[in-house]
User: Fold this.
Amino acid sequence: MGREVRIGGISKLNLFKDFPPERGLHVEPPSPMNQINPTDLIQAGVHFGCRVSRWNPKMAPYIHGRRSLIHVIDIRQTVRGLLRARNFLQKLASEGSQVLWVGTKRQIRGVILEAGEATGMPVVVERWIGGSLTNYSVIRSRLKRLEELETREENGQLATLSKKEQASLRREKRKITRNLGGIREMNGMPGAMVVVDPGREYNAVREARTMGVPVIGLLDTDCDPEMVDIVIPGNDDSLKSVRLLIQYLVEATEEGASSARDQSAAIGAAQRSDEPENHIPGDEPRPTRGNVLPPVGGAAAAAPAAPKAEEAAAVEAPVAEEAPATAEAPATEAEEVAVAKETGGDAPLS
Assistant:
């Protein structure tokens, strides 16, 4: 048996010699979301750092010591970084924001792809294309080109072209899919970025900092912790170590997304319950139903109405004045008859 070594306040046998992480060491499944078991981290080899000659002095606060020219990462700092990252991702996912997962190392591409599929978030597992965040409009145009090529292939339009043209278009489609297929569903700036080995993904981290996107970094002792916002020190070369740490972050993201879905469903159910049983959509009372509509043409039509009323009154006035004259006519004829009798003349013929 090897000698006993204390790593991050936890007593453990000499894992460097007796239990190397790359020789079939069994890793238990991660604990529930509200618990992080340091023993699982040690068994997965999260505490293994880089060689002493490759270390970055800025990582000194995250290093517990060294053994056989290899730095030992402080597990307490790893747990602290995991807790901060999980709380942040859970809150971010509950608000409906996206998380971009970045990891281009060959041995961890499968882990990043699984994280993207489990959370439904965009991923980058191939070479980081410059301008993926800072020049997103051009990236969006290339994705539209990919959709156009897929549509032409589905419709059979490629079959009408020559073999050389078909091969050229299919080669273009494969290239766009390989480089940009992971961020195809990214509709805008992500809410955060999870990066494995920020030293290798320097361009991605620099673009994220330029666009104001928070960066959660899983970094080894040879990286610069000032490049990221939330530091998770750990072994970023081992598949088991990266899988365990990413699984913790995926669980937090899934929990936040599920709470967002439950909240939206509860709001929809509450809105439906407020409606009456015999409610017909579109039959709401209008607030202007009791108002009197203005005359056709508005104020312009109301202005000529006054002169027309005055003309009608002027026409009726002469008629009213002529009516008494017609009533006095019989009285004038009687007077003439009386005058004729008095004078002894003949009465005028009517």
Summary: The longest strand covers residues 63-67.
